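Format notes (please read before filing issues)

Several people have asked whether sequences and structure tokens are stored in separate files. They are not. Every record keeps both together, in the order shown below: the sequence lines, then the token lines. Line labels are part of the format and must not be stripped during preprocessing.
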Amino acid sequence: MSALEELEQAVGQVAGQVGGAVVGIGRGWGRGSGVVVADGRVVTNAHNLRGDQVTVVFADGRSVTGQVSGVDVDGDLAVVAVDTGGATPLSWADEASSVGVGSVVFALANPGVRPRITTGLVSAVCRAFRGPRGRRIAGSIERTAPLARGSSGGPVVNRAGQLVGLNTHRLGEGFYLALPADAELRRRIDALSRGESPARPRLGVGIAPAGVARKLRRAVGLPEREGLLVRVVEEGSPAGNAGVQAGDLIVTVDGETVADADQLYAALDRVSGGRLALGIVRGVEERTVTVSFGEGRPQDVGSA
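Then the structure lines:
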């Protein structure tokens, strides 16, 4: 048997074994995909959801409304409780079967038409990208199996049809980064299935990186400063209530200089006492504002 014939056979076998567990998320074409990981449980990306209920389309064309059990927006992961109708859940690869650079993988998706499958190689591991609201997600798998829009949330499997990753971040030209299907991902899915959505503090602002901030300040004749430029402030957010405005430059958080988004998120995660002091520059004037997060940590998650 030639190499091409072996590849054709392998693709057909994996499609037949795994295809029934791959679902479409949302109505219409291109919203997103998901995968059945247990009876009554579908995993997808958080950015595929629009509210607490979602339409789940199965490989046989059956369309069912599911209820979101838990969602981690920053980690771009969600679990949907839905009648899986006897679809065989995908099995997980064990640690010994974890993929590395050069591993052959198969990527599947169901963007609302029918399940589709492509094959390729793992081209890199431990890649990082920004989640839907700006936080850094590390440890992802880069692979060369291309898929169309609407494939995020679908599975990446090995030659045995076992789950090794979850398509999450589209790089363009059909290529995706995938969350690795490791012990940590299983722990997160189990927690979301129990309704344990993570709560992280948020300011309620959209920010521009330091390089953009310097260029914009220079363009309007203001002295350059290291910091994060506030592009937008959500109405009624902790930052908005504290008086932060679009155009402000955040230069310190609790007295520590902040020059990139990761430093700001790290400071938010260390919030104690429900308050955070922001040093901001408005034009040429420097001031400090105190952001209050109310009782405990907020349940929503924001871009910062």
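For reference, the curators noted about this record: The first strand starts at residue 22 and ends at 25. The two ends are 55 Å apart (CA to CA).
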